[in-house]
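Internal ticket #5521
Category: modeling
Description: The requester needs a full-assembly model to guide mutagenesis choices. All entity lines are attached below as received. Residue total reported by intake: 600.
Assigned to: D.W.
Attached entities:
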Amino acid sequence: MAAIEFEDVRVSYRTRRGVVTALAGLDLSVPEGGVFGFLGANGAGKTTAIRAAVGLLRGARGRVSVLGRNVPRDLAGAIDRIGALVEQPSFFANFTGRRNLELLARTRGIGSKRVDAVLTQVGLGARGDTRYATYSLGMKQRLGVAAALMKDPELLILDEPANGLDPPGILEVRTLMRGLAAEGRTVFVSSHILSEVEHACDRVAIVAHGKCIADGRVEELLRGTTGRYRVRASDGRAPDVLGRSGWMVNPDGDGAFVVDVGAASAESVTRTLAEAGIFLSELTPVARSLEEVFLELTEEQA
Amino acid sequence: MRQLDTELRRFFARRIVRGALLLAVLIVLAAVTIGTVRGKPASTRTVDKPDTFFVPPGASSHVGENPDDPFAGTGTFTFSTSDTRTNVGKDLKDVLEGTGVALVFVAIVLGASFVGAEFNVGSLTTQLLFEPRRTRVHMSKAAAVAIGAGVVSLLVSGLIAASMYVGSELKGVVEGVDGAFWWDRAGDGLRIAAAAALAAVMAYSVTLVTKRTTAAIVVFFVQFPLLFLIEPTSKPFGFLSHYNPLRALLTVISDPKRTNPIFENGIRTMAGGVTLTAIWVLVLVALSNVIFARAEVR
């Protein structure tokens, strides 16, 4: 069973300027377990899809199911197994962080011990009793994550969880997501921080113009040549020799350099240098980054 | 019940609710204290008429010319002042009904702002991630608003009654205050609380659809009061005034058996007021439920 399934989901809004299509037949299946990254440019439809999955958006055409339950019709039956953070978390400004969580917890019969535990888990243990209005952006985000964790969910849906977090905070969220995935839970996370997704996620889907344009394991998407090699040679003539062959050469620090051979193979590099009497101490293909894959796919789509 | 319990906690934790209660306490205590301290019993003073009067130049009458002239002839003048002491037995009913109108408008603000504030900060989104059944959320909030506004109204009415009684005991008049009197005033207080509760639910329902507190405030503080300007029996728009929910609420608050120009051409009986209010509440709650169930919540 898939944790989340979108089947030909279509959402459009009427505005004064006409009809805006947010989702144009989204098809996506998020398997159970692991961290699933959901990527897309601003306005690609990520948040709309998430809002449809958690029942905040009504009137979407197509089928959305979460943990085997139809959304929104049967969502109530699965809500205790789902934790979600959608966009900027919003709480009552004049209540403390703890009070805000306690009020939410009460609706699901969750005790105050669990509230304390999640506050500690997100690093707000010491600030739980201060007013939400005094929280920084990062602390508000942490409280949102705490609310999402409160139900000890099987499925955690996080919409841009790193928003407003400092580098240690981002690292903590990544560690948290990996930890939850290691326990067998599913984490569905949308983000525009591609390097973060690349490090934290097992699988990713890329959405553009309301449709899923790529979906798979991270290593599968990154597979493929970039035509670039990191080269190291003790002979200082090496960059000039490669440059004379018409290839772009850029220093890469530590005495190494990156040569872009385009469609040529690694053999061409070794042969060219060997013919000049230069022998290599390192030749490493430069892997594609998720950012490159993302830009490549979204540009194609555009 | 858990949802209702949570909504009630939210309602009573709001600063506007606590502020309104505190303000009401201060106003009631100040008004009753001043009234009690300044209150004086009725008095009669008799003075002798003077023998002669100053008649301004050009005045057409003079002393003794007109037999109905109070200044004519000899004798005394009698000056009387009414009893201004706090009299719980005589005044409490009127005070409660007068305050009831204010309490209904306060309840409208509390009801509208309860959900308006949630739309404003976006906290409804977070709540729906914990309870996605929107009808349940809606009904819990409506019930919390009704109970909350009713309790606020009862507390204020109770405070008025208690402070007036104390004022009457200390430096006023305590007459006709027996079990039956308190029983009747309890009925008044409950009636006002019911009107406040229903008004709050109506305002809450309007805000749930419009998503803005100000919209409900405009509807209840401007549009509906303006409908009073239309003669209820006139055609074709008289029905708008006749079935105005504020008219129905005022009927519930006031005793329609007494002569009151408001009721001359509109709803005249308590049963009529209650029925019309109930219809308004049911229609608004049902309609807002349908719209809320289908709306995207941000």
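Resolution: model delivered.
Comment from assignee: Residues 105 and 111 of chain A are 7 Å apart (CA to CA).
Ticket closed.
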